[in-house]
C-alpha cells in the first residue's frame, strides 16, 4: 500500500490481508505505519513497514528492492498517497507552481513504481496496479482542482 494511511490505505490493507496477502505499508511517518502494522497483525495480517517519501521518485527502485527482499514477489500495488489534508485549488486560482508541486507524488512516482515491477509482472503474466484517486481525476470539478489535473494525467 503506497500511501498507507488511516483511511483508504488501511482499508485496502485490511481487505487484502483478509484474502491472505502479506502487505507492504509505505508512507512517510514510521510511527503511524508501525501502529497500523500492529493493528493488522492483531487481525491476522502480516504487514511490513517501509518508511519513504513518495514525492521522491528517485527512491522507488531501492524501495521496491527492499519490499522484494522482505516479502518476495509483488503481486499487487495500490498507489493512493492522498490524505484529507491535501487541499484543492479552485480552477481559476490554479497555476503551474501548484501543479509542479504535485507532479512528483501523483504522476512521476507511480510511473516509477510501474517501471520497477513491470518486468516481473510481464514475465509472470499476472498482476494488478490499483491507482486509488479521487473523482476529480475523472470528472473536472471547478472548485476541486489542483489534484485533479495531475491525477488525471496519471490515469492516462
Instruction: Specify the helix fraction band.
Output: 40-55%
Radius of gyration: 16 Å
Elements, N to C (H/E): HEHEHEHEH
Structural category is mainly alpha
Q: Which segments are poorly predicted (pLDDT under 50) over 5 or more consecutive residues?
A: none
Q: Separation of termini? A: 21 Å
Query: Mean pLDDT, as a whole number?
Result: 89
- Globally, the shape reads globular
Q: Which sequence of strands runs across the widest sheet? A: 1-2
Beta-strand percentage range: 5-15%
Number of strands: 4
Query: What's the story with the biggest beta sheet?
Result: 2 strands, parallel
Count of helix runs: 5
Explain this structure to me?
The structure is a single chain. It is built from 5 helices and 4 strands, in the order H-E-H-E-H-E-H-E-H. With 156 residues, it is mainly alpha-helical. The strands form 2 sheets. The chain has a two-stranded parallel sheet with strand order 1-2. Helix 4 packs parallel to helix 5 (147-155). The two termini are 21 Å apart. The relative contact order is 0.16.
Amino acid at each position: 500500500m503506497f500511501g498507507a494511511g488511516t483511511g483508504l490505505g488501511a482499508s485496502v490493507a485490511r481487505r487484502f490481508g483478509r484474502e491472505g496477502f502479506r502487505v507492504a505499508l509505505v508512507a512517510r511517518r514510521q510511527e503511524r505505519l508501525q501502529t497500523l502494522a500492529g493493528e493488522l497483525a492483531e487481525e491476522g495480517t502480516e504487514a511490513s513497514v517501509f518508511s519513504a517519501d513518495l514525492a521522491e521518485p528517485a527512491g522507488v527502485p531501492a524501495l521496491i528492492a527492499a519490499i522484494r527482499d522482505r516479502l518476495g514477489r509483488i503481486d499487487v500495488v495500490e498507489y493512493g498517497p492522498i490524505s484529507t489534508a491535501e487541499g484543492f485549488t479552485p480552477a481559476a486560482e490554479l497555476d503551474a507552481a501548484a501543479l509542479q508541486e504535485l507532479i512528483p507524488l501523483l504522476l512521476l512516482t507511480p510511473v516509477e513504481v510501474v517501471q520497477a515491477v513491470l518486468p516481473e509482472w510481464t514475465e509472470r503474466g499476472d498482476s494488478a496496479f490499483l491507482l486509488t484517486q479521487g473523482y476529480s481525476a475523472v470528472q473536472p470539478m471547478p472548485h476541486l482542482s489542483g489534484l485533479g489535473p495531475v491525477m488525471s494525467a496519471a490515469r492516462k
